[in-house]
């Protein structure tokens, strides 16, 4: 297939990267700004709520229902609906729509992480005279950290991936390359855009795996190494 | 900006464009059902293979994670040069995504079969094929149904992205309305249609699952089935 060859040619042309307006670098920065804002917004809402619900043990049915409903609503639909509200299409509408979709994974995983903390540990922490706040942040949070970070990673990868859809409704971001390619019947550009987007998504995943490894307390073995050791 | 009225909900739009809406809905259902059916047919042998050994389950699960990380728009863009602006492009992408969910849930279902039950069946002289068909598959069924439900609901949402190759089912209404000077009625119709379709298909599969597993409704066994269902939905 010549599309792949054309894609390599497209990516090899420095002008495609540095072109003002819709060069890959400009779109990449746009993409990362929108994604970062969306994830930040979602964390601001979902983390405190998830920690509170998980600590008190309330709202389990609510979080499960929220994540199920979140799966049924197409991102594209919400992106479009926001674009035709008074917010208008542009980075703001995209950010809000993406943030809404990032809330369920963070909320659910934080809640489950907190609920899965050994009750004996919580009781021991209480018996040692820890206040509710101390139990939450010094006993439960460190133990729930792997799952909390799984939620954050899922949300981040999902946001970076779905931010490409903004291009379908006149938004910015790397999806523009693919959309423009289809518009011009230029499959080389289409595949080139797909490569850039896919690499960014995989990189995001890798960065957050590393981040969660750094943030998780306990012996610092790399996730894969740990498993290998356990079997050895 | 809008001189003409542009209501969010417009029954007359739905009435006037009923044939179009129906055609897009039919495409949406066709793509979803085909994708999940093909996904199920491929996922079952993959799950059985992955269960055989840890050497196989690692690559199978790793590859499926990689597939799931690739954004849907990029996925369709990768496939489009081979299959063009056709329904096949969307279908292939949807099957790949459904595989990720299905293989994981099928594997979890097969692994959740109690070892002593398998042992007992072996002791009674069950061969490998009969063991799978009569003991393991029925016991793993609740987990299978949970996986198929998740795959179906997420596939309904994903079909809309097929709009990039002009085959997005109800997504055509959504983006079509956007491109027609931000015409709100088709956007809302398409969005609501997607959600209703997802919930409807989910309910149908849940019902089929209930009919297929009468034993899970017995008082003592009920909780085990429900636990499997929630574990699946959290994945």
Topology:
The complex is a heterodimer of chains A (232) and B (235).
Chain A: H1 2-12, H2 14-18, H3 24-56, H4 60-72, H5 75-83, H6 91-115, H7 119-127, H8 132-162, H9 175-183, H10 187-215, H11 223-231
Helix pairs in contact in A: 1-10, 3-6, 3-8, 4-6, 5-6, 6-8, 7-8, 8-10, 9-10
Chain B: H1 11-16, H2 18-52, H3 54-69, H4 72-83, H5 87-111, H6 115-123, H7 128-159, H8 171-179, H9 184-212, H10 222-234
Helix pairs in contact in B: 2-3, 2-5, 2-7, 3-5, 4-5, 5-7, 6-7, 7-9, 7-10, 8-9
Which features does this protein show?
heterodimer, A: 232 residues, mainly alpha, MetI-like fold, 11 helices, elongated, disordered C terminus, B: 235 residues
Question: Can you offer a commentary on this structure?
Answer:
The complex is a heterodimer of chains A (232) and B (235). Chain A has 232 residues and is mainly α. Chain A has one domain: Orthogonal Bundle (MetI-like fold). The C terminus of chain A is likely disordered. Chain B has one domain: MetI-like (MetI-like fold). Chain B contains ten helices and no strands. Chain B starts with 10 loop residues before the first helix and ends with a helix. At the A-B interface, helix 4, helix 5, helix 8, helix 9 and helix 10 of A face helix 3, helix 4, helix 7, helix 8 and helix 9 of B. Chain B: Its main location: membrane. Chain B: This is Osmoprotectant transport system permease protein. Chain B: It is found in: Cell membrane; Membrane. Chain B: Keywords: Membrane, Transmembrane, Transmembrane helix, Transport.
Concise summary:
The complex is a heterodimer of chains A (232) and B (235). Chain A is an all-alpha fold and 232 residues long.
Q: Count of DSSP helices of chain A?
A: 11
Rg calculated over all Cα atoms of chain A: 21 Å
Runs of chain A in which pLDDT lies below 50 for 5 or more consecutive residues are 225-232
Biggest interface: A-B, 47 and 44 residues
- Quote the average pLDDT of chain A: 85
Instruction: Please give the oligomerization state of what you see.
Output: heterodimer
- The first-level CATH class of chain A is given as Mainly Alpha
Number of domains of chain B: 1
CATH-defined fold name of chain A: MetI-like fold
The CATH homologous superfamily of chain A is termed MetI-like
Q: Can you identify the CATH class of chain B?
A: Mainly Alpha
Number of strands of chain A: 0
Helix and strand element order of chain A: HHHHHHHHHHH
Structural class designation of chain B = mainly alpha
The CATH architecture of chain B can be named as Orthogonal Bundle
What level of helicity do the residues of chain B show?
Answer: over 70%
Transmembrane segments (chain B): 28-48, 60-82, 94-118, 139-165, 185-213
GO cellular component, one term (chain B): plasma membrane
Keywords (chain B): Membrane, Transmembrane, Transmembrane helix, Transport
Protein name (chain B): Osmoprotectant transport system permease protein
């Amino acid at each position: 297939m010549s599309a792949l060859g054309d894609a390599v040619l497209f990516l090899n042309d420095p002008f495609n990267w540095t072109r003002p307006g819709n060069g890959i670098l400009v779109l990449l920065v746009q993409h990362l700004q929108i994604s970062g804002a969306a994830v930040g917004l979602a964390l601001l809402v979902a983390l405190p709520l998830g920690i509170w619900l998980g600590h008190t043990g309330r709202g389990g049915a609510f979080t499960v229902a929220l994540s199920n409903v979140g799966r049924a609503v197409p991102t594209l639909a919400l992106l479009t609906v926001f674009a035709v509200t008074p917010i208008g299409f542009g980075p703001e509408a995209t950010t809000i729509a993406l943030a809404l979709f990032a809330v369920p994974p963070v909320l659910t995983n934080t809640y489950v992480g907190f609920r899965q903390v050994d009750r004996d540990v919580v009781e021991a922490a209480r018996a040692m005279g820890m206040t509710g706040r101390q139990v939450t942040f010094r006993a439960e949070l460190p133990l729930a950290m792997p799952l909390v970070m799984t939620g954050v990673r899922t949300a981040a990868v999902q946001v970076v991936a779905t931010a490409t859809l903004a291009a379908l409704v006149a938004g910015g971001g790397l999806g523009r390359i693919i959309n423009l390619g289809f518009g011009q019947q230029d499959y080389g550009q289409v595949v080139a855009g797909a490569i850039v987007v896919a690499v960014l998504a995989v990189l995001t995943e890798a960065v957050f795996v590393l981040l969660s490894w750094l943030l998780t307390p306990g012996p610092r073995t790399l996730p894969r190494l740990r498993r290998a050791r356990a079997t050895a | 900006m809008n001189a003409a009225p542009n209501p969010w909900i417009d029954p007359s739009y739905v009435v006037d464009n009923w044939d179009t809406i129906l055609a897009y809905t039919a495409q949406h259902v066709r793509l979803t059902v085909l994708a999940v059916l093909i996904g199920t047919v491929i996922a079952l042998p993959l799950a059985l293979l992955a269960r055989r050994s840890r050497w196989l389950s690692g690559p199978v699960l790793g590859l499926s994670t990689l597939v799931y990380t690739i954004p849907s728009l990029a996925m369709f863009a990768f496939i489009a040069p081979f299959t063009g602006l056709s329904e096949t492009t969307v279908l292939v992408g949807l099957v790949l995504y459904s595989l990720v969910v299905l293989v994981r849930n099928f594997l979890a279902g097969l692994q959740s079969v109690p070892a002593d039950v398998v042992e007992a069946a072996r002791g009674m002289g069950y061969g490998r094929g009969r063991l799978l068909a009569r003991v393991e598959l029925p016991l793993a069924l609740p987990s299978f149904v949970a996986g198929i439900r998740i795959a179906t609901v997420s596939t309904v949402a994903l079909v809309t992205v097929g709009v990039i190759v002009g085959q997005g089912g109800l997504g055509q209404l959504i983006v079509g309305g956007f491109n027609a000077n931000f015409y709100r009625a088709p956007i809302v119709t398409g969005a609501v249609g997607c959600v209703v379709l997802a919930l409807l298909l989910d309910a149908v599969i849940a019902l089929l699952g209930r009919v297929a597993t009468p034993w899970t409704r017995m008082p003592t066994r009920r909780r085990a089935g429900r636990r499997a269902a929630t574990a699946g939905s959290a994945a």
